[in-house]
Amino acid sequence: MLGSLTILLICQLVGELAVRLTGLPVPGPVLGMVILFAGLLARGHVPHPLQDAAAGLLRHLSLLFVPAGVGVMVHAGRLEAEALPIVIALFGSTLFGIAVTAKVMSLMLRRPAQDDGEGAP
């Protein structure tokens, strides 16, 4: 468990360092996840201890939202002052997401089924 958590934290650290050194416009932990994903692809499988550590973290995922909730409470005044633009952005992005999803689904349903060489003659 400790070794697996160390691997996860090292990937995050490498991501943070890469972002700070290069100025990439992505969060360091996201780049760390990409690095971890590339490493797992190169390895070909997920080691069992790493699976156990990730499952343990996912079981207690709700605890990771506590700092974000505290941040919202700290900035409650600012959120209240800028409520209208935030609501408009949330509503607009939700509608945009639904429209893009519907369009992609529509395009995918129009595609003819590809013959995979198995099943019916």
From TrEMBL:
GO terms for cellular component: plasma membrane. Keywords: Cell membrane, Membrane, Transmembrane, Transmembrane helix. It is found in: Cell membrane. It holds the Pfam family LrgA. InterPro entries: LrgA/CidA. It is a multi-pass membrane protein. PANTHER family: HOLIN-LIKE PROTEIN CIDA, HOLIN-LIKE PROTEIN CIDA-RELATED. This is CidA/LrgA family protein. It comes from Azospirillum thermophilum.
